[in-house]
Each structure stands twice: as structure tokens, then as C-alpha cells.
Amino acid sequence: MRNRTLSKIGTQLLRLRHDSSQSSQDRTTPADYGLDHRQVAEFAAGTLDAEGEAVLAHQVARLLPFHWTWPHGVAEKMSRIMDHVGDQRELMAWLDRHPGMPRLVARLYVFMGLLDTYSAVPAVVTAMREYRERTPYPPGLEPYLVPATDDDTLASIAFKVEKLLGEERAREAVELALATAAWLQQIAPRARELTPEVGDLNELMGQARQDIQAAAADI
Hints:
By secondary structure, the protein is an all-alpha fold.
């Protein structure tokens, strides 16, 4: 995962998400998802070995899609992990160092962060709307898009990616992310024409696609 991509997103990747009919609040953390107390304590103390850290990273990755509904005990342990690694971007960087689901989840959350960043940018919204006047549903996105294109379109896709992760439908989450990134690369030249400041959208989406594809190859 590239530092440039991380630098383009905010620090609040674990945020309440919603689309037209659902919210993150509608989810419940599965009873069998949790964090090992000893591993969390050793990680926070800097004494957890590599094998234990890999196990902990997988536990964290499974829990992230339910961040809004963590039980108190899970939230307290996650707080200790966060205090050790830094902010939420650093949490993703830590997960990215562990192949498999931790890395894939981290890269999908960074991608969601990019969608949040660009969702309400007027030039991007206008370019998406103009594209959909010619092609109402970009390839791979018909099941996920409502007819209207507005400031919430990309944020709603981020919600759906997170929801698919929570349902353990990682392959579908990957397909949705890749289709969205490909669409944004197509509209990037028009968005740049409208507002030069979004000129790196095409490059960022290309990098995100490569990162997600590479991580998905390991699962």
C-alpha cells in the first residue's frame, strides 16, 4: 500500500456509513468475533511475537466492519490497539503488513477513505452524472447504484463495500471496489477539466486497483 494513497484520506476511516435504506447501525457484531485479551496486552506492551501479532491482525480485520456496534469489551481492547499504533491510518498500515484478509481489509478501507474524500467534490459528481447520462450503469455497478447521482453516490458505494466485508463476501467487495475504481478512472479526465485540483484522481484509482488486486490474490 502506497504512502501517497494513505496521505489522501482522512484519519476517520471507521465512521458511521449509510446508503439510501441502511446504516452501519443496523449491523451487530457476531458473538464469535472478539480479541484475545493476552495478545492485546502483549501487543500494547510491544512484547507480542510475530505469530501472535498475525493472529491478532486477523481478529481486528474481522471486527472492523462492525465498528459502530462493538461491545464494550471489544471497544476497550481496540482502544488499546489504537493507542499503540497511532491513528486509524496507522492501523491500516499495520494491518497491511499482514498478508491475507488483514491486508485486503486494510486496502479496502483505504479505498473507502478515497471514496469519502471525493464523494462530494462537485467536479467529480458532475463528471459521474454526465457519464451516466450516456451510460446509466457503469460495468459491474448496476446492482449497487440508484438512478440519481449526487454527493452521496461514492459514499454509498463505500457503505456497500464495508457491508459486504461484514457479510464475509470479500470477493464481491473486491469486485465492487475494482469496478468503482475503473469508473472513476474513466471520469477522471472530465473531472480534471472542470477542476484541475482533482488531477490525481486517475493515478490514485489506478494505484488503489493495483493494491486491491495484489491483496486479493493472497486470499
